[in-house]
Task: inverse folding
């Protein structure tokens, strides 16, 4: 579809969250269709995880985003979907790859939302495809377990913070979950949650560097808990790390399902977003360094540095391999 | 209401689809009100058909669109509504007629959506009004039967198409039907469908001519099949004909009601849209000629030429009549 | 227009904020049109104030809201607009008055947004109309000055608050101002701000009583400061007072115009919203009493009680007058 002014920031760059929402919608459609392709209980595919996603080039207002999706692996209870986004300037005809994302879905019964159904197996052209898929499946399963433990953290408000400290840019947003945010099962679309997360992370980044910013990448996101229609969700973000030209922001999503049943507030999702600041010509600008004050902030900064260096090393390895 | 940036293309011209959606909403309100004006089973008026509609002048961001609707004929089971759209520049006070549209609605029972109810008859000031209305009613009935047969066509993707061929500009979009897209009966508003159709047709036109384009007219659209909440709809468009300064695009809407019942995908609507390309001063520009390759493409081009010449002849006849 | 699921809460009641936004759009159209009706510098009418507004009956999904607006007084630099909203159930034909609102607009030059232009005077049918209008004008002018002073207050976060305290339900929301939120001058529509304020106030009310809530009334709102496109706005709300069956919530809007120029954050608007809790049959329910802890909270509770008793007395006087 054509990118509209509301999809973009004042500089005309489309929000990463808008792209993530489109990706997730495509993934939900193809996996729901696949899971209902055999006779049996009707179901809706729910997003369980998105692998790390890089935003390879910014998309602008007026461009058309082409989204294509393909199922690349099925386990007994989950579906792996590969989604590609190309942006096309329909005036010049120029096309660019914007994103390649990998998403995992789980089919939930339409009659009983707590029941996970079986996934019809797909056919592989080559045996290796199935083996590689299985390896990816095992890896993500392990990572999901790990994040489940990390998820207990809370962002505390800071009074009168200094510029460039963590407290200065941290932000939060509340959102009342409406009908259009939800699937047929009455739970929030993963893509809607990711869009809100990107919105908060973008505000944190902009408050820190006070220049035009764009989403550069999103680390793997695990959706451990569903969020019901009518809930209030609080999305909070804080900066954890800055390199010379990038900022890492951690985002938490907490749900308050208070209307129907006075259940406790719970952590539904958390993730790391990376932003860069762009000049008017689209070049990355240096960003102000994050001032860490407490022990926790220093520890999180070091952890962020670890993730940054690891990603950088992985990317260099890939480039060397590609150059051979 | 005031036209917003999201309602318009990058040149500031409001999308024809936004106007069509407003027209349909006005028509749905007036005809639902009329069909419930007598005691009896409550019902919701569903759009059955929109007559050919010309876009007489483009609307811009910041202008106010005034929509007025009037019931002009009733048959036993259908209502004809005339909707006029005026755009008003509230800064200068200038008003222009933008559209005159004729829509046909059918009252469906709120309790049983497959039951068509009877329409309370309206009073005519003059006997001729009723006769003319009846003639329009018979004509549209005939036309509806014809399009029902044409509806089987499918758009196949083309790999590495040449510029200005049919395959080069053809486009498609998928949309998951959400609650706000639907009437009280749980079926998609005709206006929502038309807005999506205009969006796809606009992308096809812009891909072909790579300049600023606006909707010039829409041929009669027949809504043969309802689309249910939760369906996935695929809207596809391909260019069929070009004159010196206009492009005709055929648009298909297919619905996949895959979640609830594993029914087959079906063709819900199809229509022809005509676009022109505008210079910065608002003058129509020449458009590149469509290159037809296959026999089918050549046949569709000739058919489009037929429609084009017929419309041109009709318009000239009207102008001569008006000049007398 | 037809009320959609997205306009309403889970119980199907349309949000007060949606109605306020429609009211303001109607007021902006009629006053912009009036202020440009004489030759001279083109201008856009900006919302300066909304008088206290009561929500007389809830509107439901599927109903049509009819909005009508009329200019009732003009001073040299401002326009008073009276807007009435009727909700209509188009199935039964039943109509109810939903709102009567009075809004004040000021014409700002399109070329220089800081320049307030002169308003063309309107004609009054009776001399008393002008005198009464002038009285209303003087009253609102006085009230605007008063609120300007109150505006310095700030909401501090509370850690681990007890249920039914002020800290327990207080909430805040950040919003990045997009193009569709703004007028031609590039400043946020008053209606957009009011919709966001109602959203936050509604969340505060729901968090406090954990039942279905609806907006009952909004006290006069003064728009002292404009908010520019690209700003981040923080909307915060806290409960100030509870009667047996109503809750008063104070809402603050702060703007951060950080992208363009590193200006300081400023208070743009503040207002009091009153909510009631409704049973499934639409009857008002008792609400839990607000627990006040600090001196400030107790003072604000007493002030809220004063406003509540004053409104009650005024309403009784009106009813007695009407009964005569």
Result:
């Amino acid at each position: 579809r054509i990118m509209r002014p509301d999809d973009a920031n004042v500089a005309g760059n489309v929000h990463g969250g808008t792209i993530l929402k489109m990706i997730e919608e495509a993934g939900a459609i193809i996996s729901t269709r696949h899971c209902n392709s055999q006779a049996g209980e009707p179901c809706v595919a729910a997003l369980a995880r998105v692998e790390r996603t890089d935003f390879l080039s910014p998309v602008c207002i007026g461009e058309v985003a082409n989204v294509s999706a393909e199922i690349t692996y099925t386990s007994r209870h989950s579906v792996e979907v590969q989604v590609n986004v190309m942006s096309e300037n329909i005036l010049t005809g120029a096309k660019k790859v914007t994103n390649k994302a990998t998403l995992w879905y789980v089919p939930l019964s339409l009659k009983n939302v707590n029941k996970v159904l079986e996934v019809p197996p797909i056919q592989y052209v080559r045996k290796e495809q199935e083996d590689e898929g299985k390896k990816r499946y095992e890896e993500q399963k392990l990572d999901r377990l790990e994040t489940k433990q990390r998820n207990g953290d809370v962002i505390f408000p800071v009074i009168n913070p200094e510029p460039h400290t963590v407290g200065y840019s941290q932000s939060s947003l509340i959102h009342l979950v409406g009908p259009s945010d939800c699937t047929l099962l009455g739970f929030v679309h993963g893509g809607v949650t990711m869009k809100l997360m990107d919105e908060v992370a973008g505000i944190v980044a902009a408050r820190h560097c006070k220049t035009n910013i764009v989403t550069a990448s999103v680390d793997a996101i695990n959706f451990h808990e569903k969020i019901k229609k009518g809930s209030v969700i609080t999305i909070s973000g804080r900066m954890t790390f800055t390199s010379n030209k990038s900022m890492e922001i951690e985002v938490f999503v907490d749900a308050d399902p208070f209307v129907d049943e006075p259940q406790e507030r719970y952590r539904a999702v958390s993730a790391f977003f990376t932003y860069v600041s762009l000049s008017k010509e689209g070049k990355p600008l240096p960003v102000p360094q994050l001032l860490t004050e407490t022990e926790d902030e220093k520890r999180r900064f070091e952890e962020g540095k670890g993730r940054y260096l690891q990603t950088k090393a992985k990317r260099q390895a890939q480039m060397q391999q590609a150059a051979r």
Observations:
- Residues 295-323 of chain C form the longest helix (29 residues).
